[in-house]
Design brief:
With about 400 residues, the chain is mainly alpha-helical. It has a single domain, classed as Na+/H+ antiporter like fold (Up-down Bundle). It has 18 helices and no strands. The longest helix is centred in the first third of the chain and has 30 residues, at about 1-30.
Length: about 400
């Protein structure tokens, strides 16, 4: 009993330390004007890198921690604030970027690593899948700061919400393929994709509509706020247990509650309270996640994989350009989307990688080590790739966004 209490006390101290450092760093831009030129998420990663450089490890960032605790509120908050009318208008380009764009990204990164870095095709495909999901948190925050038009945020957030699910499906299939539990072929991939996505949509819709009609029966802001929190985590956990995509489930639930449930079951005051609650929770979670991302960097692995890192970053930038401009052209022709080249340029450089990439990169390291089929160090190196890409892109995004304004 004493050992258990000591462990709980130690974990609590670690959590409070991480919370204190992350929130302190996140508030620096509000206190010192010079720091306002740096997105706060990037600032958190930099501080984490400095801590890693002096070998100060705040806490072990397990994939279960990211996927089960940090990811649902981030996804729900983005889906809650995404208006269906805006999403419907740009549904064609968002789906093209989220589905075909992920395939292009995986193929491009895998080709570059296999041909120029000498990494096996299986490992290269897994690294490509790890890094295919975009995370526009810092970019959309920059858009709000600069006052850019809403459509850019809708395109970026919509793509990110849906390509998370596509990337998780691709990663899971490639893992199963490498371990010999899945067959390569178009039909198995298609069946798994629709199964995983279908379960996610079904569970998310069931919980979303259920909570929506439930909140019609009473007017208790704190209870309704709590129900949205329960729905986010409950949807993720139930969907994952049923073999579906928790990401798609949470996104579906968030879209329904944000666009339908908040309208029929909440009064204006409650909607404001719930929205502000989720804004704070997203800020809170992001502050912790991005600090720990920087703190998890292993500089020994960084030095050993500099060549592969450079190839990966180049491949990601190139494939992102191909996906955005080619699919933007297709969308403009087929759906008359009217996405200007200037907007496509912002979307190109806004394709940053973050929490989902990090979680997938370290999710199955123990399995890979046992099977000896996957280069464990290359996969761990993709954590560095994801963070490095975020740092490399951010300064350019601001220049392009300012030009757009």
């Amino acid at each position: 009993m004493a050992i258990g209490e000591a462990a709980i006390e130690e974990n609590l101290k670690q959590f409070l330390l991480v919370l204190s450092v992350s929130l302190s760093v996140a508030t620096l831009p509000q206190i010192f004007s010079w720091f306002r030129h740096i997105p706060y998420t990037l600032l958190l990663v930099i501080v984490g890198l400095i801590l890693a450089l002096v070998d100060v490890r705040l806490v072990y960032l397990s994939p279960g921690l990211i996927l089960s605790i940090f990811l649902p509120p981030l996804l729900f908050e983005a889906a809650w604030n995404l208006k269906w009318a805006d999403l419907k208008r740009d549904l064609v380009p968002i789906c093209l970027y989220a589905v075909i764009g992920v395939v292009i990204s995986i193929a491009g990164v895998a080709f570059g690593l296999n041909q120029f870095a000498g990494i096996s095709l299986t490992s290269a495909l897994l690294i490509g899948a790890c890094l295919s999901a975009t995370d526009p948190v810092s970019v959309t925050a920059l858009f709000r700061e600069l006052g850019t038009e809403k459509r850019l945020s809708t395109l970026m957030e919509g793509e990110s919400l849906f390509n998370d699910g596509m990337a998780v499906v691709a990663f899971g299939f490639l893992i199963a393929l490498s371990l010999g539990t899945a067959e390569w072929g178009f039909q198995p991939i298609l069946i798994q994709f629709f199964t995983v996505v279908g379960i996610g949509v079904a569970v998310g819709a069931l919980i979303g509509f259920g909570i929506s009609y439930l909140t019609q029966r009473f007017d208790l802001p704190l209870v309704e706020q709590s129900l949205t929190l329960v729905s986010a985590y409950g949807t993720y956990l139930i969907t994952e247990d049923l073999g579906g995509s928790g990401v798609i489930g949470v996104v579906t639930c968030g879209l329904i509650l944000g666009n339908f449930g908040s309208r029929i079951g909440m009064n204006p005051r409650t909607r404001v309270i719930v929205t502000e609650f989720w804004e704070f929770l997203a800020f809170f979670v992001n502050s912790i996640v991005f600090l720990l991302i920087g703190d998890q960097i292993q500089f020994a692995i960084l030095r050993e994989n500099l060549g592969a890192i450079a190839i990966t970053v180049a491949a990601m930038i190139l494939t992102r350009a191909i996906a955005i401009y080619a699919l933007g052209f297709v969308s403009n022709r087929l759906a008359n989307s009217e996405i200007a080249l200037s907007k496509q340029t912002v979307l190109w450089w806004g394709g940053l990688r973050g929490a989902v990439s990090i979680a997938k990169a370290i999710e199955r390291v123990s399995q890979f080590t046992k099977s000896r089929r996957i280069d464990c160090y290359s996969l761990r190196g993709s954590i560095v790739y994801a963070t490095r890409t975020r740092i490399d892109h951010s300064s350019f995004i601001k220049k392009v966004a300012i030009a757009r304004r």
